[in-house]
């Protein structure tokens, strides 16, 4: 398999963490490819017409894209059970969607500052994106903390990578303030070898 990736992409990091956790890292060749909404750069357009990483080329079908799709495929391939069966699956998928939603909003904030000309930037829009992140973090601290503290699953991986991205790109926002249980959970999760091996630089 061939994985198109960018070493700083938090969505790619989700896939990389899952590869580490399921022992499949050696099954994947990594190819650098990245771009942004106004310049596709070296993004894998043939593999993913949306021009995003990660994209996973496989021998038994078309390339897969979107980190959630790739993670679920790789989990199924390994029989790892990171997407559980039964009632817990819906919680896992919702926690994963919460982590991805944090990433979506946090990345849009980065794009606003990096891509849009300064005279065209709209502060209230940026703060609106952070409000989404803030609400999602509160939900993780309260509604979903018991799930996070349970056995490893894809939802935890998504949230761990999202919190790592907040540290990487939005550290000044201080997401840990008022969220002691989430901060404690992340400190432990971030120490996993899979997370340590995929820290963006």
UniProtKB/TrEMBL annotation:
Domain named GST N-terminal: residues: 1-82
InterPro entries for this protein: Glutathione-S-Trfase_C_sf, Glutathione_S-Trfase_N, GST_Omega/HSP26, Thioredoxin-like_sf
Classification via PROSITE patterns: GST_NTER
Cross-referenced Pfam families: GST_C_2, GST_N_2
Gene3D superfamilies linked to this entry: 1.20.1050.10, Glutaredoxin
PANTHER family for the chain: GLUTATHIONE S-TRANSFERASE OMEGA, PTHR43968
Record protein name field: Glutathione S-transferase
């Amino acid at each position: 398999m061939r994985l198109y990736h960018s070493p700083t992409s938090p969505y790619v990091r989700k896939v990389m963490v899952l590869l580490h956790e399921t022992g499949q890292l050696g099954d994947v060749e990594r190819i650098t490819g990245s771009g942004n909404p106004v310049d596709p750069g070296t993004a894998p357009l043939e593999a993913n017409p949306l021009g995003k990483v990660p994209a996973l080329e496989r021998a038994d079908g078309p390339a897969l894209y979107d980190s959630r799709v790739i993670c679920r495929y790789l989990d199924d391939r390994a029989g790892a059970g990171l997407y559980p069966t039964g009632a817990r699956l819906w919680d896992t998928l919702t926690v994963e969607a919460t982590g991805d939603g944090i990433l979506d909003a946090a990345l849009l904030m980065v794009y606003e500052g990096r891509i849009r000309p300064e005279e065209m930037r709209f502060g209230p829009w940026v703060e609106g994106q952070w409000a989404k992140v803030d609400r999602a973090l509160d939900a993780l601290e309260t509604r979903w903390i018991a799930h996070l503290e349970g056995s490893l699953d894809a939802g935890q991986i998504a949230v761990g990578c999202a919190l790592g991205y907040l540290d990487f790109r939005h550290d000044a926002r201080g997401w840990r303030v008022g969220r002691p249980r989430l901060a404690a959970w992340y400190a432990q999760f971030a120490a996993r070898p899979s997370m340590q091996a995929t820290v963006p630089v």
